[in-house]
Amino acid sequence: MSNLTVWKQLQSVPNEAKKEIKGGRLSGMTDISPLWRYRQMTETFGPVGFGWKFEVIRFWTDEADVKDSVKTRASHVHVRLWVKVDGEWSAGIDGVGGSMLVASEKNGLYHSDEAYKMALTDALSVAMKVLGLGADVYWFKGSKYSEEAPNSLPEPMVKAVPKVPIKKASALTPVADKDEDKLERFKSSMMVLEEKKEGTIEEAMKQHGHKCLNDVPAESRRDIYLWSVTYSK
């Protein structure tokens, strides 16, 4: 078995297991069916508990102020995944996922009773992703639903940027304001982690090649935050 045997078995995602997200800040991204993920793991390694297994390391929540003392809460899960290859169990493969438990929406606060379940699903997908599960969706440049791989290695992508008409600078101001709000929430969340474990921010910046929190681009903030959650000296 080559180093890429498992990756190649898991990387392709059929169209029926993909769903384009429409609306919200994740609009345009691709959602992969959790049941398809579990079926692929079972086909490749065997039934859960025998050929692959996972353990929940911990659940926790983080709280953040939005404005006017309105507080939102995010639920997080840290899981550890193992797979059996040629009769031998692998080392643990960690994944961290999250989902909003209490979100601030235009009609007020919304409390999700499925937040922990969604966070667990997210964490498992993160752990399975490093095995190659669904890699084509995250890797291939161009259409998210491309049937064929490009001839050369593509640049990693998370979201295909849609074409938009050129607007005047004044029309772009609200977008900038929204990004500033997101940056402030990111910085606030990182400061909470820094209070719990001194040196977290400095190490996170060093590991991801940034000088300070203000330099972190929007598309990298979630990954840096999730990395920081599991950081230990």
Short description:
By secondary structure, the protein is an alpha+beta fold.
Describe what this molecule looks like in 3D:
It is a single chain. The chain starts with a helix and ends with a helix. Helix 6 crosses helix 7. The protein has a domain at 164-233. The radius of gyration is 19 Å and the shape is globular. The chain is 37% helix and 23% strand. It contains seven helices and seven strands. The chain has 233 residues and is an alpha+beta fold. Strands 3, 4, 5, 6 and 7 form a five-stranded antiparallel β-sheet that branches. A two-stranded antiparallel sheet has the order 1-2. The longest helix has 28 residues, at 169-196.
Total DSSP E strands: 7
**Tally of helical runs:** 7
Structural class: alpha+beta
Order of secondary-structure elements = HEEHEEEEEHHHHH
Rg, nearest Å:
19 Å
Oligomer: single chain
How large is the share of residues in beta strands? 15-25%
- Overall mean pLDDT: 77
Terminal-residue CA separation: 36 Å
The major β-sheet equals: 5 strands, antiparallel
- How much helix, percentage-wise, in residues? 25-40%
Report the principal-axis shape: globular
Unreliable stretches (pLDDT < 50, length at least 5) are: 141-161, 166-176
Question: What's the helix and strand layout?
Answer:
Layout: H1 5-10, E1 18-20, E2 30-32, H2 34-45, E3 52-65, E4 71-85, E5 88-89, E6 93-105, E7 108-111, H3 115-129, H4 135-139, H5 169-196, H6 200-208, H7 218-229
Antiparallel strand pairs: 1-2, 3-4, 4-5, 4-6, 6-7
Helix pairs in contact: 5-7, 6-7
